[in-house]
Specification:
Elements: H1 7-21, H2 26-46, H3 50-67, H4 72-75, H5 87-102, H6 107-111, H7 117-128, H8 137-161, H9 167-185
Length: 191
Amino acid sequence: FVMRLGWTEIILIVVLVIILFGHNKIPGMMKNLAEGLNVFKKEVKKTEPVEEKKKKPQKLLLTWIVEEPKVYPKIKKYISPEDFTEDLYKKVAEKLFADLEEGNVNPASIVSLFTDEEEQREVAGLFNTKLVEISTKQEQEKAFHDIVLAVKRNSYEYFSSRLGTDVSALNQVIEGKKALEELSKTHISLD
C-alpha cells in the first residue's frame, strides 16, 4: 500500500524532528545529508563499468582508423579483428580491415551488415564520432599508441582468461604476448 502524507502529517513529523534533535542541529544534519548525497553521486559517475573501459579503446581505434585510413598499414602487424573482444566491434573490424586491404572504405556498407536497429545505431556512431583534437603531433602519436596498446592488452587478457586446455588458444595467447611486448616498445608515426 502507498501511504500519502497530508499537511497535518508533515507538520507532525517536522515538530517531532525539532523536539528530538533541537532546532540548532537540523541545518547541520541537512548539510551533512546533502554532502553525502553529492559524494555518492560523484562516485557513481566516476565508476565506469569494467566492460565499458574495455570497449572504449576498441571503439576509439575503429573511429580513428575510419577517420584516418592511412594509419591502418602501420598497425595491421599488431592488430587484427580477433583483438576486438566485443562481437559487434569484431565484425566491424573484419569488414573494415578487408575494405582497407582492397583500398576502399565504405562506412555505409559496414552499417548495412547489421539488421538490428540498435547495432546499426552503435556502428553508425563509430563513424560519426569525432576524436578529441590533440594539439601536437607527438601527443597524437602517444594517444594513438596508447589506444592500440590498450586494445592489444585487452585482447591478451581476454584470451588468457579463456585459456583452458585448448592448444590453439595457448598459441594465440603466446603470439598475443609477443605482439604486446613488441608493440609496447614500438613508436607509431602518424605520417
